[in-house]
TrEMBL record:
Keywords: Phosphoprotein
Pfam families assigned: R3H
Molecular function terms, GO-annotated: nucleic acid binding
Domain of life (superkingdom): Eukaryota
Disordered, as annotated region: 1-24
SMART domains referenced in this protein's UniProt entry, alphabetically: R3H (SM00393)
Residue ranges annotated for the R3H domain, each copy included: 40-103
Organism field: Spongospora subterranea
Name the UniProt record assigns to this protein: R3H domain-containing protein
Length: 122
């Protein structure tokens, strides 16, 4: 299981091992948010952008526009699930944005969020 308090990449998880995705666990905050239709739509949009980013071998960085603290929290948790570094940056106007940074251990998990039933954890 991923330990969000372990040392390692800034995602808080451990680098990918040769054993695959058996240790991937979606944060309960996201599994709860999936049960809300509006949040589910937002989560699936984040997931779609993240998967396209992972598949695009020419990109190592993906910036998201400023958003609410709740949406940033959800995006941070999804980035952890995909093993992507996800620093938050303070912009000159005082707003915060998340920048995703692809790593060698970033991947599309075996159980994607869009394949989950509402409220069911992988």
């Amino acid at each position: 299981m991923l330990d969000p308090f372990s040392s390692g990449p800034s995602t808080g998880g451990n680098p990918v091992s040769d054993e695959g995705d058996n240790d991937a666990v979606l944060d309960p905050i996201v599994t709860e948010a999936i049960t809300n239709e509006r949040d589910r739509t937002m989560i699936l949009q984040f997931e779609s952008r993240i998967e396209a980013f992972i598949e695009d071998k020419s990109r190592v960085r993906l910036s998201f526009p400023p958003m609410s603290s709740y949406h940033r929290l959800i995006l941070h948790k999804i980035a952890e699930y995909y093993r992507i570094d996800h620093p938050s940056q303070l912009l000159p106007d005082g707003k915060r944005q998340i920048v995703l940074l692809k790593q060698i251990y970033s991947r599309v998990p075996q159980v994607r969020i869009c394949d989950m039933e509402s409220g069911v954890s992988p």
